[in-house]
Each structure stands twice: as C-alpha cells, then as structure tokens.
Fold this sequence. Notes:
Order of helices and strands: EHEHEEEEEHEEHE
Mean pLDDT: 81
Shape: globular
Structural class: alpha+beta
Number of helices: 4
Strand content: 25-35%
Number of strands: 10
Distance between the termini: 15 Å
Largest sheet: 5 strands, mixed
Helix content: 10-25%
Radius of gyration: 18 Å
Oligomer: single chain
Amino acid sequence: MKERPILFSGPMVRALLGGSKTQTRRVFKYKNGGVQPRTNDLPGMRQIMHNCPYGQPGNRLWVRETWGYFGGDEYIYQKDIGSVGYRASQIDGLDHIPGGRWRPSIHMPRWASRLTLEITGVRVERLNDISRADAEAEGCTKNHNGYYWGGPHETSGLKQLASAKGAYRDLWESLNGTDSWAANPCVWVIEFKRIAP
C-alpha cells in the first residue's frame, strides 16, 4: 500500500472533517506527447488509469494543510502532534498561531497530518461533466436556506448559489482562476473515504 501527500485548502479541509467531501478533482497533466484520454480507447485508458499520480484504489493520501506549532519554531522537531494547530480549525480571521506562526501546507510533514484518506475509485473526465451528486461529493453542500456553498466571496466568506454544479464551478474558479472552468480540462476524479489515523 502506497501513501502520497495531497494539498487541500481550508474550506475543503473543513468539508473533509464534516464528512461532506468524498471526491476531489485535479487537472490531468498531459505527458507522453500530449496524449489525451479517450473513453472509447479502452487499452489506452487502462494504461492512463494505471499511471494515476494520486494512486489506485486501496492506496492512501495524507492531507497537507496550513498548520503551525504552538510554542514556536524551537519545538518543531519534537514531533508532538498535540502541539500542532490547523488553520482550517481556527476562528476566522486568526492570522497567527499563539506562540508560533502558520506554515504553508506544502511544508507539512507526514507526522503532523491529521487526515488520512483511502482511495476507493479513480477515473478521468471533463471538468464540466460533473453531476449534481458529484458536486455535492466535492463538498458543495446546502445551507439552512437551501442554497449551496460556493467559492469564497471577497467580503463575506462563501457565496450562496442555487445549484450544486454552480457552486462547484464557483469554487473551482476561486482555486484555479477565472477562465479555468471555461477551459473544461480533463481532470482526475479521485473518490475516497476518510480513515482513522
């Protein structure tokens, strides 16, 4: 069984913790001369699926997120998970960690990760082909007013949208840029379940 790291933003970490996120989509990067996945080319698709950079069903992903060490840098090498803080779990607007500083998710070591995911499925599809159920599995859930949460709004947190797919589009563009949805790239769809650490 292989383990690989995967980065998630604060809102997506909260969706993982809340149990509403069971899928993630990542841009398919063309290698080998720009060969594109084609569903009618079954031998080619099998080879593409076998080479998924995120792993295969049964493999694990450990989540990297913005983190910090209570007490400052001098304690970081003690590897004490009880002294680690996670920005996604902090009160909104907290720009520091008491006694320390926030560290970028890319620098999170394995021992500090609190979330481990087991891959249950992998496939490739066009971004715009996402279904309502898949958008909900991406963490776009309804709020008490019946609207779906989308990407961050500049002044008031998350936007409220009428459809799950619209909310996911908004979230995707907030993470990948304004024209990224219209480009409709091929994406890896990684399905997973959260497992106990």
